[in-house]
User: Which sequence fits this backbone?
C-alpha cells in the first residue's frame, strides 16, 4: 500500500473510530491531518495511519472527563431484568479485560414501562473496538478459538437447564430454590463471556478493514460494481441459522401434507380450529407438527416474549399453501445456498488472489456471524427454561408480571434467603422508570425521580430531530426496493405487515422471521453485517440496511420510501 492520501472517513474506518473522534485527535495533535485547500478539508497519509495503529494502544486511549453516552440498542418489547439480562450485562462490562486486555466498560440500561434502551460510553466503546481489531490482526484464529471455548463451556449451562427442567420446583424450599437460581446466574456469566462480547466489538472494525481491503483489490481490476456481491459471499457463514432450520423443518411437514390433496384443501380453506380437528385423522402429520412445536416453540422467546404454540405453526403452513410458491424450490434454495457458499468463497479467494492472512480474517468474520447465531440459539433455549424459576417465584410470592420483570439479583436473594419481600411501590416505580448502571460487574439500580435525574444529568433524554427525508446505514444485503413503510417495534404490531411493505424497526430477532419473508426491504436502527437482520436478508435476497440509528424516528407508517441498499440509503419518495 503506497503513501497516498485518504479521506477522513476512510482513515476513521481503518482505525475503527468515528470521524468526529479523528477530528478531535487532529486538534489535540495526537494524529495530524494533511490540510488540502480549506480548513475543513482534511486528508490523511495511509502510512501515518498504519504507523499509528502499530503504537501501543495506551498512547491513544481516550480519557474523558465525563461519560459520552451513545445508544447501542433499543427494544420495544417487555424485557425482564432476570434471569438473563442482569448477569449478561454484569459479565459484559468486565469481559474486555478478560478477553483482550482492554479496560472494562460502563453500560446503562434505561427501562421505561415495557421498553428498554442500552447505552455505552463512546470512548470506551471505540477503545475496546481498537483492542478487538488489533487482537484479530495479530491472531486471525482468535475468533474461532473463542467459538470453540464457547462450545466447550456450554454443557455447564445445559446441565443447570436440565436440573431446572427435570424437577418440580414447587416442592423446593426457598433456600433450595435460591441455590438453583444462584447456580444458574453464576454459570450463565461463566459461559456468556465466551459467546457474543468479542463478536460485538469486532464486527464493525473488522468489517470496515476488510471492506477497504476488498474495494482496493476490485478498484485495481476495475470491478468496483462487484463489491456488494463479492463481499456478501466472503463474509457469509456456511452454518445454517437456527431460524432457517425451523423453516426447513416446516417445509418438510408441508411436503408430507402435499401428498394428500384433501389435506391440502383443508389447509388452504379451513380456519385454525378446523385444521386442528381434521389432524386427528392424520396422525402422521399431526405428530410431525407436534414434534416441530416441541423442537422450535422457544424460537421467538428471546428474553421473555410469548412462545409459538401449535396454532402458530398451523398458520405458517397454511400461508405456505395459500401463497402458491413451490415448496421444493424453496427447499432447494436453502440447501444450495449453504452447500455452495464454501465453494463460492474458495473460488473468489483464488480469482482475486486473496492471500492466506486475509482469507483467515474473512473466516474470522464468518465465525463472528456463526457465534452470534449460536449464542442466540442456545441462550434463548436457556432463557425459556429458566423462566420456570421466575414463574415459581412469581407464584410463590404473588407478584404481578410488571413486578417480577423488575426484580434484581439482590431482591431475589432477600426474598428467598431472608424472606424479605421488596417494597411493592418500589417495583411499581421501577416499571415506570428504572436505570441500571453497570460497571466492573456490579449493577447500581435507580428508580423513579432518582432515575429521571440520572438520565437528565447524563444527557440521555431524547433530543429533537431535525426534519429529514432519508437515513444512511450499513449495507447488509444489496438491492433496491420501493414500498410502503411499516414501523414495527414489538411483536404485537406484526399483524400490520403486508407483503411488499418495507420493514422499519429497531432491530430484528428470531420472532421477526415470518414478517421478514413478507418485506420488500428491511431497514433497522441498530446492528452490523453480522446481526440477525443481515444474516436473514442475505439468505432471502432482500435489500437490507442496518445501523441507521434513527430510521424509526425519520419514517412513519404509510410513507413511501426507496431503499437503495447498495448505497446504504433509504429515502422518502413522492
Assistant:
Amino acid at each position: 500500500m503506497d503513501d497516498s492520501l485518504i479521506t477522513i472517513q476512510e482513515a476513521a474506518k481503518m482505525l475503527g473510530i468515528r470521524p468526529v473522534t479523528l477530528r478531535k485527535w487532529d486538534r489535540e495533535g495526537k494524529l495530524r491531518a494533511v490540510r488540502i485547500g480549506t480548513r475543513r478539508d482534511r486528508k490523511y497519509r495511509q502510512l501515518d495511519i498504519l504507523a499509528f495503529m502499530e503504537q501501543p494502544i495506551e498512547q491513544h486511549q481516550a480519557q474523558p472527563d465525563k461519560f459520552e453516552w451513545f445508544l447501542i440498542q433499543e427494544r420495544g418489547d417487555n424485557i425482564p431484568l432476570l434471569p438473563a439480562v442482569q448477569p449478561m450485562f454484569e459479565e459484559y462490562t468486565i469481559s474486555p479485560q478478560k478477553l483482550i486486555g482492554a479496560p472494562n466498560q460502563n453500560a446503562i440500561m434505561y427501562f421505561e414501562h415495557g421498553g428498554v434502551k442500552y447505552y455505552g460510553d463512546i470512548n470506551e466503546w471505540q477503545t475496546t473496538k481498537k483492542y478487538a481489531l488489533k487482537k484479530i490482526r495479530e491472531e486471525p484464529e482468535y475468533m474461532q478459538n473463542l467459538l470453540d471455548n464457547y462450545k466447550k463451556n456450554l454443557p455447564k449451562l445445559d446441565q443447570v437447564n436440565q436440573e431446572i427442567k427435570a424437577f418440580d420446583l414447587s416442592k423446593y424450599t426457598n433456600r433450595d430454590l435460591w441455590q438453583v437460581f444462584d447456580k444458574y446466574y453464576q454459570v450463565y456469566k461463566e459461559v456468556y463471556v465466551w459467546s457474543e462480547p468479542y463478536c460485538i466489538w469486532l464486527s464493525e472494525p473488522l468489517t470496515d478493514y476488510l471492506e477497504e481491503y476488498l474495494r482496493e483489490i476490485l478498484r485495481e481490476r476495475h470491478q468496483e460494481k462487484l463489491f456488494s456481491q463479492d463481499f456478501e459471499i466472503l463474509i457469509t457463514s456456511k452454518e445454517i441459522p437456527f431460524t432457517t432450520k425451523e423453516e426447513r423443518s416446516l417445509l418438510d411437514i408441508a411436503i408430507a401434507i402435499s401428498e394428500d390433496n384433501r389435506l391440502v384443501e383443508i389447509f388452504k380453506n379451513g380456519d385454525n380450529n378446523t385444521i386442528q380437528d381434521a389432524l386427528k385423522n392424520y396422525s402422521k402429520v399431526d405428530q410431525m407438527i407436534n414434534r416441530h412445536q416441541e423442537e422450535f416453540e422457544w424460537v421467538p422467546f428471546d428474553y421473555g416474549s410469548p412462545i409459538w404454540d401449535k396454532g402458530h405453526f398451523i398458520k405458517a403452513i397454511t400461508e405456505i399453501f395459500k401463497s402458491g410458491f413451490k415448496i421444493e424450490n424453496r427447499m432447494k434454495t436453502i440447501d444450495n445456498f449453504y452447500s455452495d457458499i464454501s465453494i463460492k468463497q474458495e473460488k473468489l479467494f483464488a480469482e482475486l488472489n486473496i492471500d492466506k492472512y486475509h482469507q483467515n480474517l474473512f473466516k474470522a468474520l464468518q465465525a463472528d456471524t456463526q457465534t452470534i447465531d449460536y449464542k442466540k440459539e442456545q441462550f434463548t433455549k436457556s432463557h425459556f427454561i429458566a423462566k420456570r424459576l421466575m414463574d415459581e417465584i412469581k407464584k410463590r410470592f404473588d407478584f404481578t408480571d410488571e413486578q417480577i420483570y423488575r426484580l434484581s439479583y439482590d431482591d431475589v436473594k432477600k426474598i428467598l434467603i431472608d424472606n424479605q419481600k421488596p417494597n411493592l411501590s418500589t417495583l411499581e416505580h421501577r416499571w415506570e422508570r428504572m436505570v441500571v448502571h453497570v460497571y466492573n460487574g456490579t449493577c447500581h439500580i435507580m428508580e423513579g425521580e432518582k432515575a429521571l435525574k440520572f438520565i437528565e444529568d447524563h444527557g440521555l433524554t431524547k433530543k429533537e430531530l431535525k426534519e429529514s427525508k432519508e437515513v444512511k446505514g450499513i449495507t447488509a444485503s444489496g438491492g433496491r426496493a420501493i414500498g410502503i413503510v411499516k414501523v414495527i417495534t414489538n411483536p404485537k404490531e406484526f399483524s400490520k405487515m403486508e407483503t411488499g411493505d418495507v420493514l422499519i424497526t429497531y432491530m430484528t430477532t428470531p420472532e421477526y422471521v415470518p414478517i421478514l419473508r413478507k418485506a420488500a426491504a428491511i431497514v433497522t436502527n441498530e446492528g452490523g453485517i453480522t446481526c440477525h437482520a443481515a444474516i436473514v436478508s442475505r439468505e432471502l435476497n432482500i435489500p437490507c440496511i442496518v445501523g441507521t440509528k434513527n430510521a424509526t424516528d425519520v419514517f412513519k407508517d404509510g410513507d413511501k420510501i426507496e431503499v437503495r441498499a447498495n448505497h446504504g440509503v433509504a429515502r422518502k419518495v413522492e
In short: Residues 80 and 405 are 4 Å apart (CA to CA). The two ends are 45 Å apart (CA to CA). Confidence is low (pLDDT under 50) at residues 56-65.
